[in-house]
Design brief:
single chain, 333 residues, mainly alpha, flat
């Protein structure tokens, strides 16, 4: 006797069990969704990878080579004979026990401090001036700043060498015409302070556009309602600046100061091209000192050691600003 049985549809759940085993657990993303999530999480690192590779190749490898050279006795004889003479920390010991190194280090720190103060002060004033000018005058001044900023350092240095030339310089001619006849043939690169004066004017002139243009851009982000509220409270120009403008510009000023310290401290082209660290090596800064001791005196291991010590001094100078900027970013988060 045959018994007829009715076949029932097992439904999607049973079909899923039969085809793929256990059904997917509740709350667990599908394999395709998980893969896309991992890809999205890795996307920022993949985008940064070319820049990281370029940084390692262009900066990291030369720094490693410089570190290796700093532990060698390398001069023309070793270069010609392809010899590698390791001398341990002798280059560092000789440098750190040299009075010239510490004298140049102090000179570099003072030179950097004077330049950065002038750059930040004058750049801030020019940036605030841009914010108050009309559109036409602002455009004209911005074009002038961009042209000064875009000029290559060696080209700008050449122009200043002509301006401060002893016999045919424009500066001496103007001073003579104004009544300072003793300045008619004044040698601006004949003394330490006069040479540093020319270098400082050059570096400040080249750096002001960066500070001014970026500060003006920062002022455009300040809401106008804050100035209106300050005016209703009876605040004048100075009070509005200290209570509204300066708090908004403080992060920018800290970051810009940090960048300017780095830029001025490592300035080589301007200092070397004006007078090659003279007269009598009295205007050498650490980058110029490293170049003259290394390439000029053909003691490349010593020059490499001074270069690495220069980086250490620069890190020490910028550590305070770096901590301040990082602490401020953490507070904003």
């Amino acid at each position: 006797m045959a018994v007829a049985t009715e076949r029932q549809d097992p439904g999607p759940a049973a079909a899923g069990v039969r085809r793929g085993g256990a059904p997917p657990r509740p709350g667990r993303p599908a394999p395709g969704v998980a893969g896309r999530a991992r890809l999205n999480g890795a996307a920022p690192y993949l985008l940064l990878l070319p820049a990281l590779v370029a940084t390692v190749l262009l900066l990291g490898w030369p720094l490693v080579k410089d570190g290796l050279l700093s532990f060698q006795n390398l001069n023309m004889r070793q270069l010609i004979q392809h010899l590698t003479e390791w001398n341990g920390v002798d280059n560092y010991r000789e440098t750190l026990t040299s009075e010239d190194f510490w004298r140049v280090t102090l000179r570099s720190v003072i030179f950097t401090a004077v330049n950065v103060v002038l750059i930040m002060l004058l750049g801030t004033l020019v940036g605030l001036l841009l914010a108050r000018l009309g559109s036409k005058m602002r455009l004209l001044l911005s074009v002038g700043l961009v042209l000064a900023w875009a000029m290559p350092p060696i080209a700008g240095t050449t122009v200043f060498q002509w301006l401060f030339a002893t016999r045919f310089g424009v500066v001496n001619w103007v001073l003579d015409a104004l009544g300072w006849h003793s300045m008619a043939h004044y040698n601006w690169t004949g003394g330490q302070f006069s040479t540093f004066f020319v270098i400082t004017v050059l570096i400040v002139w080249q750096s002001i556009p960066f500070v001014a243009i970026n500060l003006y851009a920062a002022t455009t982000t300040i809401p106008g309602e804050l100035y209106e509220a300050a005016a209703l409270d009876g605040a004048g120009t100075w009070k509005s600046f200290t209570s509204v403008t300066f708090p908004f510009l403080k992060p920018f000023l800290l970051a810009t100061t940090f960048l300017e310290v780095i830029w001025v401290f490592k300035a080589f082209t301007q200092v070397f091209a004006i007078n090659e660290g003279g007269p009598d090596r009295l205007t050498e800064t650490l980058p110029v000192y490293a170049f003259i001791e290394g390439v000029g005196n053909q003691h490349y291991g010593m020059g490499a050691a001074i270069s690495l010590l220069t980086i250490v001094v620069l890190l020490a100078l910028t550590s305070y600003y770096l901590r301040t900027v990082l602490r401020q970013e953490e507070d904003e988060l």
